[in-house]
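Subgroup meeting minutes
Present: P.N., E.W., G.H.
Scribe: E.W.

1. P.N. recapped why we're keeping a running log of single-chain structure predictions: easier to compare across weeks, and new members can see raw inputs and outputs side by side.
2. G.H. added today's entry (367 aa).
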Amino acid sequence: MIIKGASVFCEDGTFQVKDVFVEDHKIVATEAEVSDKTVVDANGYKLIPGLVDVHSHGACGHDFCDCDVEGVKEILRFEKAHGITSYCPTSMTLSKEMLVDIFATAKEADGIADGARVIGINMEGPFIAPEKKGAQNGAYIQAPSAETFRACQQASGGLIKLVTLAPEMEGSVEFIKELKDEVHISVGHTTADYDTAKAAFEAGADHVTHLYNAMPPLNHRAPGVIGAAADNNHVYAELISDGLHIHGSAIRAAFRMFGPERIVLISDSMMACGMENGEYELGGQKVFMKDRKATLADGTIAGSATCLYDCMKIAMSFDIPEADAIFAATRNPAKSIGVYDRVGSISVGKEADMLLVDDEYHLKQVF
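Output recorded in log:
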């Protein structure tokens, strides 16, 4: 396939009008390498990388924790249709036995032609602080356990790329040191102060789970996780840019604090994403969604009902520069879980995951 005349988003953050050549699902350097000469006329459109969502629980009425292979396939179809071509189904705080069964469904569901690629799994819990559990089920919280993690990783076929922990939990630093070369470790759902978070990052944690949410706020005398993460240049910070979880000013502040290279836009979407207002579930708990705002019965925000593509557009509406918003939904998440060699940019040798959009970011075609 040959995509002709598109304004292509390049690795340096510029748009350049050029042709893109695809052979056997990969981007190649020259037309001579292409056996299928089908031409897509992309003149007047932009071509950006397929989006990479590293934190999403579900969509279209299905949840990863339903432990339903067909349900996961439906989620993957929804994601691809909305421009997310690489996807990390994300778990909740549940028992080890339940998680083992859930993680096995991801590898079974991957590989459908009309769905997003399962690029990894995000294990959000059960190693979290009860005080900051948010919409997680506190009954299943446990201290960080390498044995529990490895049992889940074995069940997943090695797909787990991220695991969240609260660094104030007993055994956290030991867990980080033991597993930092096996999985990316994210600090989140935590009451940690600056020094505790700093120790976690120095031990090898390199990610923050939904910055601002489920952690102490940034305070000038107590900067907490946010300050510690900003001070450690190897740490990526997730942001839920749905216009509900975080004020636009705080989104802009995060991009300034961390720089456009370290912000990872996520959806944190749950099964209500793409659905009508009504009652849904998240981790076995009832969730009520109205006008994209999903909450538990007590009003606690319970994930989002906005896909990553819309989160990227909302970030742009908050005056985040176009290139920075695209990088935060493509390059940065891919780098944060170690898959940038495969996806996250329109580059020779990578998967040919691309989105054709107009100047207003109406999605025209998904490759």
